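Collaborator request, handled under Task 6.
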Amino acid sequence: MARVPIALLVAFLVLPGLLLAPLWSLGGLGAGEDDVLQYFPARQWLHDTVRAGQPPWWNPWTGLGRPYLADPQAAVAYPPTWLFVALPPTAAYATCLWLHYSLALWGMYRLLRSLDLARLAALFGGVAFAFGGFMLAHRAHFTILCAAAWTPWVMWRSCRYAALPASDAGSVRRLIAAAAPLALQCLAGHIQVVALTGLGVLVVLIAAPPRAAGPRRAGRLLRVGLAAVCAAGLFAVQWLPTLAFVRVCDRSERTYRDLVENSWHPLSLVTLVAPMIPGQRVPNLFAEPYWAPSHQVEQFAYVGWLPLLLALLAATRRPFAQSYADSVLVPADDPTAPPAPPPPARAAIATPTTPRRPWIALAVFAVLLALGELGPICPILYWLPGANLFRCPARAVLLLHLALAVLAALAVHDLTAAPNPLRARLRYAAQAWARRPLLAPLLIVAAAVGLVLLSSPFLDADARAAALRSVRPWTPAVWVPVVAGVISFAALRFVVRCPPDPRLGVLLLAVLALDLGVIGWTIDVPWSARGPDDLLQPRTPAPWMDRVRETPHRLWTVTGRHGRYPGEYVESLDKAVANTNILRRIPVLTDYGPLQPREYVRRFAFKPWGEAVEAERLLADTRWMRLCNVGWVLLWEPHWRAPAGCTLVATLPGGARLYRNPRAAGPAHLADPLAGRVDAIEQEAPHTLRIVAQTNPARAADGPLLVVSQLALPGWTATIDGVPAEIARVEGQSLESGQA
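Structure tokens returned to the collaborator:
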């Protein structure tokens, strides 16, 4: 690896602190959705469990228990995850985010330097990728951000290994250098990002022109496949338990509609130039609530004015002449290849240029994939084995932003480097585009506003009203992008009017940092919060939680939809819904996560985020609650009927009702009450339950059945007095005898 100047290493470490400054005092939190519903509570549990001297195998707090290690989003085998054991969880959460923004910046810089770009141009592309819309919006998806930070590293090392001459292809060191970033990306916890990165690598390798000393396309793909096999071996510590768990889950049974859920909507084009016109989840400077289709985090595509303009310039410029370097990029052993021409007399025409075709192909592929049901790629991908495990094709915006960052960096390099005919044509086009730095941004933002107005008749009444409010000229959602556009166009105009000088890249870099810094300071950043405690505590006092916590029984919080959002997304900390219940130390029936056991789904029909779509049925006949150790029911919506056989014990502010189920029998009980009694139950560890029972074998031919209200998932074993015993499943639950 080439040596990186100390000043650049400092920049890699400092820039996340500057461009996301308000975030760090909040511990990296702010969205109030997946960050507090999934990722932070799970890592809080890891901290508490390992600090208590227990291995993090089994999480007993949510969904009748879940295998913690088998969930890839727990990322137990990912080295940075163990910062949550060494540090307080809020400090570790912020540290991990900071680390991965720096990692993304450094990796993109290295990828661009491998394309022979100047340092400032490479740093410009690194900032565009690391602090572009995908990386900023998906901060709420902790594992997505961690995995995406490795994307430029995987792209760099995979393409570098694939293009090696035959003499270096057998180098074990180079193979490890290609496999290690891919393995770390897998371990980071989000396999969909790994799959997207793999598709991006394939597109770039297929679209890249062959090199004289390098292998053919088939050889390049075989090398990448070898690196992927090696990475899979390093990743086995995670995918083996995950595979065992997925086999009993409903994730593999999803339909095409699930695959294309949250496709990138054409209306989201407005976020390329005016990112906050569709509103946002957390009000601050941009106060309008999110009203556009799908979710903000999935649709957000802002990469900054300058990267977008420069990428379009790089992609649309017409070469002055084919360079000498491009003319010989054919395999040397190809008998049909014409002999290499001698170098042209004019050195300017012979100046090598980095091929743009692979990155243009990647951008086009990313858009077609992100469109999901509106594009041509998802219908084909659905028939590939394993594709139905994924959803949200809009996440292919990750590849779009990477391609735009590369193309923009190429343009910065050519605009600030020594002139030649190729660069002169680019400079002439840039001068034409930047001729009117005030009028051009106004027209572009006006076009975005016009697209919103044209779409408003197709929105529901609430969304239409919010959309019309967001496009008023005096709202920050409109005037802030206009100001950013004017500054960006003016900076571009200044650069192209000056003689080419690499130092001009500093101006472009500063303007980009200012542009993206506005988004980094606002997206999912509640300015009213003073610290992470403000984001992790209930909004109102909740003495009912203390009452529930004093018993060993589970809580079922029954919520419905609130407009476009599931009930779990609204005041989740006040409801103690999964997995916020972990922060309160309250075991709950519902679970929030992508892997739901089939038996659990069949019995309760809960959505992956916990929403009860068959609540009426479950509330009308509550005999199942004894089996599942549900002793408390919190009805958050006023229209839910009282659960049968339960007693009202409290009415909470806002009208929520808390009921007590007197028939809850604890974590374990005998199926036939006359067959004996359970004397003691001891949770020796999250994954070990010791039960002492006095039984009457004469009550049944096969002996009494001890019912334990935890699912018999892979890895569970049972013994009776030290002798292995069989675990039987009855009515979708586990009947376990002895010590589990």
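The cover message to the collaborator said: "Confidence is low (pLDDT under 50) at residues 320-338, 343-352, 732-740. The chain is about 45% helix and 10% strand. Please let us know whether this matches your experimental observations."
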